[in-house]
Amino acid sequence: MKKIDNLIIAKKKYKSRLIVGTGKYRSMSECAKAIKLSGAEIVTVAVRRVNIVDKNKPLLMDYINPKKITYLPNTAGCFNSKEALRTLRLAREIGGWNLVKLEVLGDKKTLFPDMIETLKSTEVLTKEGFKVMVYCTDDPLMAKRLENVGACAIMPLAAPIGSGLGIQNYINIKIIRNQTKLPLIIDAGLGQASDATIAMELGCDGVLVNTAIAKAKNPFQMALAFKNSVVAGRQSYLSGRIEKFLFGSSSSPKKGII
Amino acid sequence: MKKINKIQIKLNGRFVKIQDKTTLLSLLKKLKVPIKKVAIELNQTIVSKKSLSKIKIKNNNKIEIVHFIGGG
Predict the structure, then answer these.
(1) Which domain holds residue B45?
(2) ipTM, interface predicted TM-score of the complex
(3) Which of A44, A59, A162 shows the shortest C-beta gap to B71?
(4) pLDDT in tens, A188-212
(5) What's the CATH number where A212 sits?
(6) Rounded to whole angstroms, how far apart are CA atoms A141 and A124?
(7) Nearest residue in B to A58, CA atom
(8) Domain membership flag for residue B47
(9) Burial class, A43, CB count within 10 angstroms (exposed 0-12 / middle 13-18 / buried 19+)
(10) Which residue of the set A15, A33, A67, A101 is catalytic?
(11) How many domains in chain B?
């Protein structure tokens, strides 16, 4: 038997390799239930202005206990380094969170990350003591540079955020896997549970899913499906798949054929 | 009668009139903001929660109060 197969990020161990986003749900209670079913121990959250007009608006922290689930503050919606740094410094001030997800977008249509700004921000945040999980393109050279400036996890996109297209560039993901010992987590673009299995079979350490669960017709069932698909993909990866052959090879012995 | 001076500040992007010499802590309490669950910025500088009672808000100050919400 293999020893316990934890996901380790910034020296902290997690049993689940599925990270989920908390956006786009129909309600807070739906979000909380889906997270519970997914088994995720880390959830991404956004930093936004408090609604000072409607004080009765439900608070995320009332539904998802940050003492039980790791909050991963994200810079979603930031389009330059300055905005991202400001957001994460505020996030740290809310509750002392050092583990953060950096996402600096470069294009409003594709939501692809601006890697120059992302690299700059990673370096600054790391020097300030943040543990930075970095949303990035699936470019192996850029992934290496992020690692060199101190990223604690590499999070390449599978496809544009919210597109549901699944992994588009297997080769690059495999190359990044091959070159880094850092946690490699597919972030963005997954559409169905099997996409997560493929990510795990490519050797990724985890996946981050938001839209595919939140916007599914039945988010609870999809949360469960993703939970199982990540486990299946991980087990499949660790088991060592068979070689591929061009021709058939029968499964039953030839000896004793009547 | 003692005249109450009012000042104008920008709070979370909206112009608001408050009483002069209000501290950040009393403003947050008046707004019923759960202090442990937010972060506060005064003129783009983060304010530590320990110093909220010491800081008096001045005219044209820009204050941001943020918290965590659902996001991807």
Answers:
(1) 6-66
(2) 0.90
(3) A44
(4) 999 999 999 999 999 999 999 999 9
(5) 3.20.20.70
(6) 20
(7) B69
(8) yes
(9) buried
(10) A101
(11) 1
